[in-house]
Amino acid sequence: MSSNSTDAVLIESLATISMQINRYLPIGIFFFGTIGNLLNCLALSQRTLRPNPCALLFLASSIASLITLISGVTVRFLTGWSVNLSETNDTICRIRFFVLFTSRTIAFWLLALAMIDRWLSSSADIYRRQMSTLKNAQRGIICVVILSSLAYVQFFYCFQANLTDTPLKCYGKTVLCRFIYDLEFALITVFIPSSVMIIFGLLTIFSVRRTTLRRAQPVVVTLRIQRRSANEKSSRLKKIEHQLLVMLCVQTTLVIVFSLPQAGHSLYTIITQSEIKSARTKSISAFVLNLFILGTYMSNGMPFYVYTLAGGMVFRKALFDGLRVILQKITCI
Question: What does the alpha-carbon distance between residue 152 and residue 95 come to, in Å, rounded to a whole number?
Fold first, then answer.
């Protein structure tokens, strides 16, 4: 068998496998991810978590992840059945990619802000702790939404459908557009927020350990009788803060693990864009990119299950309270 025929078989096999993956895997990601993010919104909007700025950032991130799944996973599913309108219509192509990458960037940056909030709230400096407020969290959400939208507004000019010599049929129409898209996604959407999460995560862990050691030192108690209700309230708030930190650390780790491969592929595309690639190389690259894209969607669909397992009774109680309220309203109809 000649080299050309071997390459043709490989290319056809990879295309068939990609089509089958796009037909069935996105169904599970969309179903579990959509339900999970809706339940997140229900739990994080409950009264016990509502006053916490980190919970507000989680809530906004869940909404952004839900938009990401709707605008992204449904299209991957349609691609498997060759009925993806964003590949043939310029307007749908541009709107879909703008909404997809803006919402994905918002979701990742809100997690980075949540990690910064955990560092502020755990700091020994009272002025830093005072910066961890709902008002500042709301300001951060507004800034992230505006800046993320501005970062990808160039999609309305750069992206075009019905392209052939590109990783996706809906892609940047010029070399410069593709360079900007790949660089923006790799840096703005993945690498920079991931670096912020890692840096402030380590700072938060160090701050918590230092606070714990300081509390362990012997202290002189001037008042032997304290109000039990105040102690219980303080203990409950500390428990919420601790479990929110655990939830954030676990989710941050998974987001980085599932998102870095696609960002790395974007950098690879930038580095090798001037090279002349064979049909075999292009086919392998497109197949790998398809897997990485689906992996990134998984990071948007798993937060609920992370919160349920790592959030302890605080998150589960808020979820059960929300479900109880909904059931009561349904039974009263």
Answer: 11
Closest CA to 263 of 284, 293, 298, 294: 293
103: its two tokens: 């919402």
Assign 3-class secondary structure to the chain: CCHHHHHHHHHHHHHHHHHHHHHHHHHHHHHHHHHHHHHHHHHHCCCCCCCCHHHHHHHHHHHHHHHHHHHHHHHHHHHHCCCCHHHCCHHHHHHHHHHHHHHHHHHHHHHHHHHHHHHHHHCCCHHHHHCCCHHHHHHHHHHHHHHHHHHCCCHHHHEECCCCCCCCCCEECCHHHHHHHHHHHHHHHHHHHHHHHHHHHHHHHHHHHHHHHHHHCCCCCCCCCCCHHHHHHHHHHHHHHHHHHHHHHHHHHHHHHHHHHHHHHHHHHHHCCCCCCCHHHHHHHHHHHHHHHHHHHHHHHCHHHHHHHHCHHHHHHHHHHHHHHHHHHHHHC
Answer whether residue 213 shows pLDDT above 60. no
Rounded to whole angstroms, the Cα distance separating 168 from 187 reads 20
**48-107 confidence digits (pLDDT tens):** 888 889 889 999 999 999 999 998 888 877 776 777 788 888 899 999 999 999 999 999
pLDDT at 253 over 90: no
pTM: 0.85
**What is the C-alpha to C-alpha distance for residues 45 and 319, in angstroms, rounded to an integer?**
9
% of the chain exceeding 70 in pLDDT: 88
